[in-house]
Design goal:
- By secondary structure, the chain is mainly alpha-helical.
- The protein has two domains: 181 residues, Growth Hormone, Chain: A, CATH 1.20.1250.20; 185 residues, Up-down Bundle (Growth Hormone, Chain: A), CATH 1.20.1250.20.
- Helix 5 packs across helix 13 and helix 11 packs antiparallel against helix 14.
- It is globular, with a radius of gyration of 21 Å.
Length: 426
Amino acid sequence: MVLLVDFLIYLLRILHDEKEGNFMEQNINAKIWTGPFLVALINNFFLFTVYYALLTILPIYILNDLNGTEGQAGLAMTIFMLSAIIIRPFSGKIIEMFGKRKTLLISELLFCLSSILYVFIESLSLLLALRFFHGIWFSIVTTVLITVVNDNIPESRKGAGLGYFALSMNLAVVFGPFIALTIFQLYSYKVLIIGLVTVIVIGYLFAFTLKVSEYHPQTSTAKWYRLSWHDLFEKRVIPVAIVGYLTAFAYASVMSFISVYAETRGVFEYVSLFFIAFAIAMMAVRPFTGKLYDTKGPNAVVYPSFIFYASGLFLLSNMHTVATLLVAGVLMGVGYGSTVPCLQALAIQSAQKHRSGHATSTFFTIFDSGIAIGAFVLGIVSAKWGFPMLYILCGVIITLTIPVYWRLIGRKKDIRYSEPVCSQQE
């Protein structure tokens, strides 16, 4: 009860306090949309488009062409995420050892080669092996790309810049499945793979033009050959990552079960509209929330975003009509679509400049674990208590995440939101 009262008092103080001017001193009009930023954003969009397209079409290919079971189709999805989660903690060390540019170009090249191999795979065992191999390079390339784009965003525009960058991932959630299903229905599986490979190769060629800032701290040679907790994780990111874990855990209910739930309610054919509403809402608020983060700090974005997010989940629990489905999509687009970029920016800004790769890998290791564990746990919940209870539970989790965020991050007075927490000279 005391914690709740303190939290409410703190919220009231946020609403009435003016920031001490440290945000206004920053150049809020600094330019974001530079050539390197645009190249990185488009490249990221291509990577996640391929990821979500394969996520959509491979189960169909496994069931129809490889005569696999539903369990084997699910395993093909799980094994990709498993390898990505396993390798993610090592990504920061890899970036630190080989440099951002070399890591980016090699990992994306191997991601391209992995994508090409889908054309030739005609057995389930080889497909599962390829999925594991593919997940490794997806994990590394997406981690290093975030650190590269972070270098190309002005310090005073981190919230807006990383928000737009995260938007490219979220738009791929809509575009990837759409293009996959369209091409697969009109042409064939192999034509789809060739199209996806063409897209990712174009992105790879443009990656050579990216401006990359390397940072090599003075470190003893022996240290490069030791592997410690510090080499795998950035402890300063853990509080943000815990909040990200809870956010992702609840979102697993949408990624894994929204289609099945919609089918039980007789609105399956409108699920694609849910994601379109999600994307439109997310794009509509992105300029506003990005500027709000940079001028007022993350608390001004996170608290209302969690409220929108929880509202969308609660609404889904009582979904019977298309209108309810779409409104829930809008609420979650505003909530989830604003929360994740904000947490991502907080994670990067909580670490020293040369540790941005470790910060990114730590955050997404824990975030991806939330999706993986959430899908498993919520599958049990849905089987035992049904989908309405599943979404009520997720709404409660996000509601409780608000005081968790306040306790771990929001109440701290010494966070500098519009510049790195620990500046280092390049």
